[in-house]
UniProtKB/TrEMBL annotation:
It is a single-pass type I membrane protein. It comes from the Eukaryota. Belongs to the RLP family. The keyword Repeat applies. PANTHER family: LRR RECEPTOR-LIKE KINASE, LRR RECEPTOR-LIKE SERINE_THREONINE-PROTEIN KINASE FLS2. Signal peptide: none annotated. Keywords: Glycoprotein, Leucine-rich repeat, Membrane, Receptor, Repeat, Signal, Transmembrane, Transmembrane helix. One of its GO terms (cellular component) is membrane. The lineage of its organism: Eukaryota, Viridiplantae, Streptophyta, Embryophyta, Tracheophyta. The chain crosses the membrane at residues 141-162. InterPro entries: Leu-rich_rpt, LRR_dom_sf, RLP23-like. It is found in: Membrane. This is Leucine-rich repeat-containing N-terminal plant-type domain-containing protein.
Amino acid sequence: MSVDLSSNRLTGEIPREISELVGLVSLNLSRNRLTSQITPEIGRLQSLDSLDLSRNQIYGKIPTSVFQIHGLGVLDLSNNNLFGKIPMGSLLQTLEPSAYAGNPQLRGLPLQKMCPEDEKSPKQTVFVNKEDEDGLITQGFYISMVIGFVVGFWCICGTLIFNRSWRYAYFKFLNVVNDWVYVRVELIK
């Protein structure tokens, strides 16, 4: 189920009852005049794939319950009055900074503006070279391909080489298949 009430000049608060729509997949309340905080109960919408609250006058901090929505693929909170630190969570830090644009008091990843407590405690950053990572994956692919070929080849051919009865049965089977295909081709002509 999708709810799109964008550009309707809605005013007031986002109703808390919206969190009871547990089957809701998409919620678009953008381009209105909503003036409330984001309700923490929004985390109960586990089916939610898209949430657009952009271009309103929503204020306050982003509730941590937003990152508990595991299927959330699209989130746009831009052009509001949100402030504070973006909650830590896999989804919220991987979004484009444009999802938070127009909230001058908002801080933390993925924005360039960091929180004061983040700046005081220097963290060691581990840089992973994308080319090295791709090279390792490619090398692993080729190694596993060679191992698979060698094992497969020797399982089939080794059995035929060392087991005389299987070798005779295999070539007898090939002759039967060859004769059957030959007869079918001749009948079609």
